[in-house]
Amino acid sequence: MNKHNVMIGIIGLLAGAVIASFTAGQAVNNNNSVMMRMMGMNSSSKEMDELSHGTMSMAQMSEQLEALTGDDYDKTFIEMMIDHHEGAVTMARLSDSRAKHDEVKQLSKEIIAAQEKEIIEMKQWQKNWGYSSNEMMHGGN
To answer: What is the CATH number of domain 33-137?
Structure first.
């Protein structure tokens, strides 16, 4: 690898860090809880102190799942998917009052319907299989 490629790599890493810091700062300053959750941050200091799936990036969640099998995999996968689906529903609910195009509004309605159904189903599985739910760990919604 030559010095030119190393320099390009370093510049790319620094640019990425600056962009991520700026975006995170904007999310915190605007109290944008959906964006903060997507970036792996929670919006309240109580939640910031908790080690939960809501504070992990998608890559970190996938990495954690790779180490699991059986019940441990199923329990963790369901907890993470519930968080993921709840975030999608929160985002989709914004479309009704904010989206310009009817296609986005319709897609958002379909996302809400499908993902709320799946959330209910996964929470029932948690109950049936004796898993503690993520909702219970966070005090419920």
So the answer is: 1.20.1260.10
